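Apologies for my clumsy wording, but could you write out the amino acids of a protein and the tokens describing how it folds?
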Amino acid sequence: MNKISLLVIGITIIASSCVPARKFEEIEKKQAACAEELKKVKAQNLGYETTNAELTSKIDVLDKSIGRLKSDTSLLGKSLRMKEKQYDKIDALNVRIQSQLEALQKGSTIENQRLVNDLNATRLELQRKEDELNRLDNELKLLEAKLNKKEATLNQLSADLASREQRVKELEELIASKDAAVNELKNKVSAALLGFKDKGLTVEQKNGRVYVSMEAKLLFPSGSTKIDTQGKSALISLAKVLQDQEDLEVLVEGHTDTDKLSSSSHPKNNWELSVLRATSVVEIMLGSSTINPKTITAAGRGEFLPIDPSDKAKNRRIEVILIPNLDELFKIISK
């Protein structure tokens, strides 16, 4: 039996023994009014407890959302700490409400009014806290969206990097393959022309190409464009090696020294002499092999690319430049 019931019984006993009936009725009315007011306050408190439970549920949902975000994000930590503080404040408010309800049950009218005012203030405070939690929830959603966007960007960059690494790998493999093929070609040419090594003929590999340089004395009589027997033998040996090569461009360049030609007949000058000598070389190579004419070019460079300005004999030369087909390489580069 609670304190109010005992109080009522006591008052009833006293009233029945020494208080007039009218006075007793007034006390009963006051008691009923207090009980009614207490009932309203309890109902109001129940509503606040329901609101508090809803807010607690929302806090749990937010806690789970926070757990899914990256723990090293400073904003996430800040928001979590703020919500924990707010939860503690709500607990403190609940304690205050319980204390106020206990005071209300003591029947003080003035205290009742003060408690009602406090309860209204508490309701407003709870509403403010709920609005703050909603704001934090929206901020967390925005942060999560930004993190997802950055993750998508990072994934795309990773994919692009992997693609570029694959292209680089393909390029390296293709370049290595081309270098090996050029080196093998250089060795074959050197072996085929080994007998002419000390007669003004050199074979070297540079810039991904093979250069076969033959001094004019090996191929032509002085001032002539007609190839002699020894030169023809060297060119036939070279052509036999090249006819079995695929994906290869052959550039034949004629070079002269700086001595000027002045003649009414052909060749009239060094330009023409260099072109005619290159053409003679091409004709011998095509006539003695199955080289595709589409892959060979004759060009005259005249006197303008000397290899030794102090040695005219070295400058008078034919250079056969063997150029690998780099179409596959360009396809990879252009991807």
The beta strands are 201-206, 209-215, 248-255, 296-300, 317-324. The CA atoms of residues 54 and 264 lie 112 Å apart. The two ends are 90 Å apart (CA to CA).
